[in-house]
Write a structure and sequence with these properties.
The protein is α/β, with parallel strands linked by helices. It folds into two domains: 176 residues, Periplasmic binding protein-like II (D-Maltodextrin-Binding Protein, domain 2), CATH 3.40.190; 159 residues, Periplasmic binding protein-like II (D-Maltodextrin-Binding Protein, domain 2), CATH 3.40.190.10. It has 14 helices and eleven strands. Helix 6 packs across helix 8. The longest helix is centred in the C-terminal third of the chain and has 20 residues.
């Protein structure tokens, strides 16, 4: 198992990055992410200023997560992606499988006060093959116009179709639906993965999902839940917190986030093994994960920066002008019942759980 790097005896890294070295020059980089408001935040905070500084064109592509496409490219010896935004469990799995390049964390720029990057990133943000950019969460949100007498307040309410009737939107996959089901069934946050590590616990989670299966519309891309809510296709949906924030602020949608049982996760940059532009991809990682760039991304979407030194630089939304800190998943008020995704558990059990989920869905 690829373990998270321990932040202990790294030497101080070089000063903040300047221009690209000739070895790192590339005409273009293909960077793959999740689309929608999230990719927009990366384009504004990273892509545009990087292109302006270096002249390197950024070709932005979207995907729906997972490692299947990376694995296929590496195995075929035809790697067309240079950089990929992934969830932590996929960063660990891909490194274990040898389909991702290793990244030396000592190359990353120090914080403005000179603190080495290896001490400045939050715990879990640096692995052998990945560098984190954001802390995000999966929450659920509802359309307030559909519940004039008062909307749902807890994860249990999401699964209560009698008290809160209507279609639900859920991500098509085992993660994080198994966690949500157990939270709704009364399992404490600290016990979620212990319960899921037993066959009885997995059965219990699927039994809870059974209760709403006929009322679920499944989504795969992060842009879908806010659109499903806006179209009236569902009355509530699990979603990435930043996507709902964008719908609330940029599109004036009457959506409310329920933070109960939110599942925290990290997104990280990885380089597919065999990228033709590895040096340039590493240079982009150095640039986009410095203190200022991570703080800049938080101007566009409500995901917390993965560097401690960036947090104090978070200000207002770039266009709406509202304070961003209260909308972060890591805001104290939102953290009361939060669950930290156990990336090692998912790295070990993802295939098994997804097979079980696919069989359950097909029934």
């Amino acid at each position: 198992m690829n373990k998270i790097l321990k932040f202990s005896t790294f030497a101080a890294v070089a000063a903040l990055i300047g221009g690209m070295t000739s070895a790192a020059m590339a005409d273009a980089l293909t960077i793959v992410s999740w689309g929608g408001a999230y990719t927009h935040s990366q384009v504004e905070a990273y892509h545009k200023p990087y292109t302006k500084m270096t002249g390197t064109k950024i070709n932005s592509e979207d995907y729906s997560g997972g490692l299947a496409e990376v694995r296929a490219q590496v195995e075929a010896g035809n790697v067309t992606w240079d950089l990929l935004d992934v969830e932590l469990s996929d960063a660990v799995r891909g490194c274990d499988e040898g389909i991702l390049e290793t990244i030396d964390a000592s190359m990353l720029p120090a914080a403005p006060d000179g603190t080495p990057a290896t001490d400045d990133f939050i715990d879990g943000a640096l692995t052998d093959c990945a560098v984190a950019t954001i802390v995000w969460s999966t929450v659920y949100a509802y359309d307030t116009t559909k519940f004039p007498a008062g909307g749902p307040k807890s994860m249990a309410d999401f699964f209560d179709t009698s008290k809160f009737p209507g279609k639900r939107g859920l991500r098509k996959g085992a993660k994080p639906n198994l966690e949500f089901a157990l939270i709704a069934d009364g399992v404490k946050a600290a016990d979620i993965y212990d319960v899921l590590s037993t066959s009885a616990g997995v059965d219990r989670a699927f039994a809870v999902l059974d209760k709403i299966k006929d009322d679920v519309i499944w989504w795969e891309a992060g842009a879908q839940p806010p659109q499903m809510l806006a179209d009236g296709e569902v009355v509530m949906a699990t979603a990435y917190n930043g996507r709902i924030f964008n719908a609330q602020v940029a599109e004036n949608k009457p959506f409310e986030i329920v933070w109960d049982g939110q599942i925290l996760d990290l997104d990280l940059w990885v380089i597919p093994k065999g990228s033709k532009n590895k040096a340039a991809a590493l240079d982009f990682i150095k640039y986009s994960t410095d203190t200022q760039r991570l703080a800049d991304q938080a101007k566009y979407i409500s995901y917390g920066p993965a560097r401690k030194s960036s947090s104090g630089m978070i200000g207002n939304h770039a266009t709406a002008g509202i304070a961003m800190l209260p909308h972060m998943p890591t805001a104290p008020e939102n953290m009361k019942t939060a669950i930290l995704n156990d990336f090692e558990w998912w790295a070990d059990h993802a295939d098994e759980m997804n097979e079980r989920f696919a069989a359950w869905l097909a029934k």
